[in-house]
Amino acid sequence: MNLEQRTAALLELVEQYRLRRFAELLEPAQSEARQVMRAAIADARRRVHTAIVEERKRYATEVGAVEAALATDRRLFQQRHAVQLLGTAWHELHARLVARWDAAPTREQWVRAYLRRALRSVPSASGGWRIQTHPAWNDDEQARWVEQLRIDGVTPVKFETDSAISAGFRVFSGNNMLDATIEGLLADRAQIEGRLLHYLQQEQR
User: Fold this and answer.
1) What is the distance between the alpha carbons of residues 170 and 187, in angstroms, rounded to a whole number?
2) What is the pLDDT of residues 148-179, one digit of tens each?
3) Which residue from 4, 80, 83, 173 has the highest number of Cβ atoms inside 10 Å of its Cβ?
4) pLDDT (tens digit, 9 = 90+) per residue, 75-121?
5) CA 202 to chain CA centroid, nearest Å
6) Starting from the edge strand earliest in sequence, which strands make up the sheet with 157-161, in order?
7) What is the DSSP letter of 164?
8) DSSP assignment string, 90-135
9) Which backbone phi and psi does 128 adopt, to 5 degrees?
10) 138 near 92, Cβ under 8 Å?
11) How far is 94 from 181, CA to CA, in rounded Å?
């Protein structure tokens, strides 16, 4: 084997060694690169997932705050509206009660209903009844009721006109009293407003 052949064989040997060594070095590098890529992709996915979760939480928090604010505004509006409705309804109720007392036919109904109630709840003591009344309940009407109450066992009956009463009357006997004035009928404002609001809401549906 001459020098040229030995040189070519040596070069071939060196090339084979280079290729084998390159393969030995390349495979771990590629494996490590794949691991690095997988780790990077997994980390990126975690970061994206975390960002999405945080964004959803932030969105839910903001939406919840907006919904709570809207609910509060809605309640406040409804409360203000209810106050306005009740103010109007209360004034209307008072005016209609006064009108019922001022008109003789409905005043008669008012008197009859509450005198019947007084017969059940206000004992007729030896002193009879004292009735404080608004001036609209005139002498002729009073005289008819004095006779009816005498038949019902109440005597004597004394009437006193009280201009401070807006409408209606009060029945006294000893320490007992039935208040059928407009002030007495509307004394429990909270309960009456509750019923008014219920009826008003029923009408709006």
Assistant:
1) 14
2) 999 999 999 999 999 899 999 999 998 899 99
3) 173
4) 766 667 666 777 788 888 899 999 999 999 999 999 999 999 999 99
5) 15
6) 157-161, 129-133, 169-173, 176-179
7) T
8) HHHHHHHHHHHHHSHHHHHHHHHHHHHHHHHHS---TT-EEEEE-T
9) 70, -150
10) no
11) 11
Residues 188, 90: Cα–Cα separation, whole Å: 12
Going by C-alpha positions, the residue among 134, 129, 132 that lies closest to residue 104 is: 134
Which is nearest to 108 in space by CA: 67, 152, 141?
Answer: 141
Characterize 154-171 residue by residue with b for buried, 16 or more Cβ atoms within 10 angstroms of its Cβ, and e for exposed: beebebebeeebebbbbb
The two tokens of residue 97 are: 């009660």
Tokens of 160: 């006193």
At which residue do the structure tokens 């009660």 appear?
97
AA identity, residue 92 = E
Asked whether 146 and 157 are in contact (CB, 8 A), the reply is: yes
Phi-psi region for residue 124, left (φ > 0), alpha (ψ -120 to 50) or beta? beta
What residue segments make up the domains of the chain, in order of their start?
95-191
Q: Which residues of 109-134 are buried (b: 16+ CB within 10 A; e: fewer)?
A: ebbeebbeebbeebebeeebbbbbbb
pTM of this structure: 0.58
Locate the DSSP E strands across 86-143: 129-133
Phi-psi bin for 128: left (phi > 0), alpha (psi -120 to 50), beta?
Answer: left
- How far apart, in whole angstroms, are the C-alpha atoms of residue 143 and residue 162? 18
**Residue 62 identity (one-letter amino acid):** E
